[in-house]
Amino acid sequence: MIISRIGWYTSLRCVEGSDDSRCYNYHGECDSGLTDDQRSSCSTAEECDLEEDTDSAKGSLPIDSIAESPTFTDRANMFQNVEYHKSDKKNKSKRIIDEYEKPKRIIEDYEKPKLKGKNVENIFNELHISNNKVDDIRQVRNTSSSWDPIELLEALYRLDISNEPQRKSTSKYINKEGYLEKLPSGRKKATYWNPWKKKYIKLKDGFLFCYDNLRAEQPSLTLQLMGGHVETLDNKMLGVDDQKGHYLVLRCSDEDAIESWENALQTQCAEDFVNAYTIPCPRPIAIHKKVVIIDLGSCSVRAGILMAQPTLPKVFFPTVCATNKISQKSSFGFEALRPTVRKNSELSFPLHPSAQVTKYSIDVSVFPDLFKKVFQELNVYPEDYKVQLSMPRNLSLKTKEKIAQVLLDDFKVKGINLTHQAILSLHAYNSKSGIIVDIGDRMDIIPIIEGYIVESGVTRLPYGGQRMIHHLKHALAEKNISIVNNVETYLARYVLEQLCYVAEDYTDELQRFHTSPEELEMSISTSHFFKNDSLWNEVILDIGRFHVPEGIFTPENWGLDNPGLHKLVHHAIQECGVDLRREMSRSIYLSGGVTLLPGLVERLQTEVDKLTPKTITPKVHASEYRYHMSYIGGCLIALEENFDEICITKDTLKKEGITCLKKWHT
């Protein structure tokens, strides 16, 4: 006789039920010994021949396997009674119930354990504590929904314009100019085909400019000498090596000239980073010309009016938009994050890559309101100004056309020039060639040679600061701090900037943490951002301080199958020409807010050094103002004499169409 699982389950159902014929028929069907296919082909009980079932047709399960069930005896007795009373359906159901009255009582006894008074008291105490915790969490959530983050945003977007440090030189340049004889670059000996030629040499603020003659307006050769080397050669000659792949031999007229030029060149080669990069000037200074500088980033918007020298932006706010659900009115920046505004609005980040399948690569519908806010904050009439605009990524021609139409048609600006942030950052470093490492909301590694992008070496990744904050939220959750909405994310960003760092050696830092975790633990107060009591009065981190940012160099920590930052930089160097790799290795320039993390500059230099030949020593450049480098570079572009020529006007766009937008370096 087969012991069917379905029959066993139905028996339990019958125990709870009554003398039901449907239950009995189900037993008979399951106990027939037929296969599922045979049973499905039978339309009635008579077709299945239940009453005249033979022993050979009944189950073939070994008795040992059946006996493994803890209730085997009970089931065997049940089915024997069923066999003896097939003709009496009511008696069968009654016997089944009688057989299982005892197990039913056992189950009831098990479901009602006898608890002592002390155990009951402990359980109720635990429930009371849990309820209190739930009430506390609910209170925090309610507080965050009505929380005004303005004080936090002011801390994140603070610009102390009046206290901008002026240029402070740690070494004094000796600027000098005059005629010298020069060999072609890379040559150490004169030949018939490569003779000495008289050139006008000018040394100024760490640069060497070579002119064909005194009247020449543009130099034929420009070298940045910072970090270079000068040596004295025979026959009144000087060798100048900029340590970037360029070697220059100069010949003086006499010994006194050699000593004078050597001293001047030595001062130009000193590593004075304060003077090497563009330093923003303090306000107030005179307005140079009517140009508005706008830097649109994925996380932040910067804007200002062009001055006689580069400055920090005057307007600085988060790139967040709140659209009212009823009136469809848009608010930006601090105003969008106020509780009274976001209560009836939908928050969006318009410069993040668009999730919609459209002809535009970003959300262009918000540009009119966004530009309107910028012009209002600057208190200018847009029709009187030209615009230097920077964007964080490559844009399609349709997107560029839409931006141009908004500014030229809606706001009637006089002209517009659009440039990629990476190129502007390179300008701010006073260089035309190098590897730009821009890490903000996204991560871009872009090799540029003489102002032209080497496309094969470009890497653009959709993760960066936002991915770091995402993993920081998990680290904070382990400390019982839950961050669930976009407004609270700014608190995580504040914690990231204040507590996190990049480890010099990740393995050693892990070992240090396991040995003495209290040494790495650090806390920061956040109570001043909340008017009411909150569980977020203090944030404590230990391993998360260096584990969260490690994903930049070890993407496996973030669950990503991508090369680390140092490998991407090395790839960009390798994609350049062989004769340029030394120069590019010495010209790695950082920009973006994430590069401000302590330890990142040193770690990147160490990791890239491991990948380059021993004869090459890479150099990572990090300006103190790299958080605003693209805006500073925009000021430099607008200050150039040919800025009016590179701008596109409304007449140009109407006459040449969309093809005139291709000249923009984006």
UniProtKB/TrEMBL annotation:
PROSITE patterns: PH_DOMAIN (PS50003)
Protein name: PH domain-containing protein
Similarity comment: Belongs to the actin family.
Top-level taxonomic group: Eukaryota
SUPFAM superfamilies to which the protein is assigned, alphabetical: Actin-like ATPase domain, PH domain-like
PH domain segment(s): 173-270
Classification via Pfam families: Actin (PF00022)
Gene3D superfamilies associated with the record: 3.30.420.40, Actin, Chain A, domain 4, Pleckstrin-homology domain (PH domain)/Phosphotyrosine-binding domain (PTB)
